[in-house]
Every structure is written in C-alpha cells, then in structure tokens.
Amino acid sequence: MGAPVRTIAAADWRADFPALNQSVHGQPLVYLDSAASAQQPGAVIDAVARYQREDHANVHRGVHTLSQRATEAYEGARDKVREFINAGSRTEVVLTSGTTEAINLVAQSFCRPRLAPGDKILITHLEHHANIVPWQLVCEQTGAELVVAPINDKGEVELDRMLELIDDKVFLIGIAHVANALGTVCPLDEVIEQARQRGIPVLVDGAQGVPHLDVDVQALGCDFYAFSGHKMFGPTGTGVLYGREELLESMPPWQGGGDMILEVSFEKTIYNELPYKFEAGTPNISGVVGLGAAIDYLQAIGMANIASYEQELHDYMVAELQKVEGIRLIGEARHKASAQSFLLDDIHSHDLGTILDHQGVAIRTGHHCAMPLMQRFGLSGTARASLAFYNNRDDVDRLVAALGKAKEIFA
C-alpha cells in the first residue's frame, strides 16, 4: 500500500514538499535544517493519512481484513528498506524508533554480554551523542574502555592514527558515515577493511549517510548500519538497524513483550525468529508506512542523482559563504555532504539563528548533539546550514543575504 512510484523531475522536487510553501515572519521560508529533521513530501503525508483513514489496526496478530492490510503495509516497508540499502535478507532489517534505539540495541544486546574488562570500543571525535553515550554506558557496565580516534583541524578523521588504534583489544568500532555537525564523510572503506582483517565488528551511524548517499551495506562490508526515518524525508519515531544475520541470530532480545515471542509460560519463553525478536510491543505502524513511502519517493529520483545534485549545491554554498566578510567555516574536510557549520564575527550562534529566522531562513544553532566535537574546536556551538535536494541556489543566496543583515544589526 505504498505511495505510487513515479519519475520525478528536478523542477518537481521542491513543489512536492508542502511545508516549504509558507512564509515565516513575512518572508518565504528557506529551510536549511534538514540534518536535524528533513521535511516530508506529499506522498509520505498522504500515505500516512491513507493508512490512518482506511487500514489502521494492529499488525501480525489479527485475522480480520484491516489487520491483514496493516501487516502487509508494515512488512512491505521492511522489504523496501532491504532493497534500498541492499541488505542480504529481510531478516537483517530490524525496525526501530530511530538511530538512537538501533545503536543502544547493539550496545546492550551484542556488546554487553560479550565485553570484559580490558576490551575497547573505538569511536571517533566526530560522533553524535547517540554514537557516544550508548558506548559509555556499556563500558561502565562491563569495565570496557572507550577509545576515541582524533580528528584534524579540518574536521577529518586522522586515518593513520585511527588505524593504529585498531588492535586486538578492540571489540567493536562505531563510526559515522557522515558527521552531523560538520558534514565530513568518514573513511569507511579503510576502517572497515582493517577491522575485517582482525575480525572486529563495525557499526556505522548512517543517520546522515542514507539521506544523501547511495548506501549498499553489502558493498560497505559493515556489520551493523543504523539510520532514522525523519532524516530521510519520513516520519519521526522510525528507524532501522541493519545487522548481519549471523550476528543478529547470536544476540539475545533487548526488550521483552508482545510480538517478540513464540511461546510464553511462567517457566520459559521461546523467542520469535529474526527480525521480530528485537521488535517488542506494538510498533509505530503508520510511521513505518510513511518510511516506506519515503523510500518509494527517493527511489523514484535515484540516490545517485540526489548525491550529485546536492554535491554541486553544497560546493556552491561553501563558495558563497567564503565570500562573507567575517565568516569562519568550521569543518573544511575534503569529502563532505550536506552540512556546513560556521560562525560570523563574534555573534553568538543563537543570536545569529534568531536573526536569520526573522529573515525566513531556518538553520540549526548550538552544539548539534556533538559537544566533544565542539570542545575540540574550543567552541560552545556553531551555526549550521544543512541541505537537501529540495534546496536550490536561491536558498543559498537568501542565507548569504540574511547573514549580511545580521552583520548590519550587530555593527
């Protein structure tokens, strides 16, 4: 019951997102905060509304028609996810509430039973809090150590140093595909290759990767890949954990309840098969239906087309920002996607965001759930403009003009 697939031309992209057709403070909206949460196309909104109007029922448990239709739509979305990321099997696609739940699931179900004092979890200095705190928790629980690979002043992982840190004590590596605060594309190929040589599992935080890049988890060779629906033009409260089947099979359930069981008695519980043993309770059915519709929409455009368009637009944005007197770009990695952090003169990022909002330009300000990264640069926060394929050069020009207005006000 997903949204119908159609071929989408570049001129249609922006028109498909109704939220963009509004004014803020009397100015046409320029939305440059997609790294926090992307807008939804009409096809996603309509798919969720259609489900709520016509098909709402619980999944997997009913023999009546509405339950069967809801189950078909929900499981159909899982199949779309499998194809979208090229997982080897639908059993490798665990539906979650988002990237955060997916990473916590791996930390508590895969790592916690296996970690011992002296073991290490290796991450990078670029990570979002969701790829830091779950590992801190499991290290506190087990006596393992969290090790952090450094970054350089451009916001790039110091690859040689990270590879040196991969030793026989490293139990798992967690690394972002694309860093949310800076837009840095991380060197996954080299890290995963080194990890595979030592038999070390790798979890990729793909929250900022999936919306902007063509992701093939089998080609990447990662063991886990986590991402969120709301970053990829779907509803909030949806997400995915991809895991290699043999690893998921070896992991105990993380949460107990309905739907993750085959048989329950007071003496013993027999757990459900993959992927359902990790999906306790009634899921966000309408959200997952919307996630499936978002995948239909992205597939109709083509992720390679999106990546190419966004790269050109990102390059344009960076070039135009560099022309602004007093601008300081934070994060100038050679390989980037979607986002650019910056500061302007001595204007606090929150003040800058407020002034831009009054010009109709929506950006993100603050630490971007990456406080250790901000500390690395000696900052409390930055302004961040993040792009999606519904943005265009006019949006960038409006951003630059709004920054000029901010300079006038603070002059």
Explained architecture:
With 411 residues, the protein is α/β, with parallel strands linked by helices. It folds into two domains: 10-41 and 302-410, Aspartate Aminotransferase, domain 1 (Alpha-Beta Complex), CATH 3.90.1150.10; 47-299, Type I PLP-dependent aspartate aminotransferase-like (Major domain) (Aspartate Aminotransferase, domain 2). Helices cover 39% and strands 17% of the residues. It has helices spanning 10-13, 42-55, 65-85, 99-111, 133-142, 159-165, 188-198, 217-220, 245-250, 285-301, 303-321, 349-358, 371-376, 393-410; strands at residues 23-24, 27-28, 30-31, 93-96, 120-124, 145-149, 170-176, 202-205, 224-228, 239-243, 261-264, 269-271, 327-330, 339-344, 361-362, 364-366, 382-386. A seven-stranded mixed beta sheet has the order 4-10-9-8-7-5-6, with helices on both faces. α7 (188-198) links the parallel β7 and β8. α11 (303-321) runs parallel beside α14. It starts with 9 loop residues before the first helix and ends with a helix.
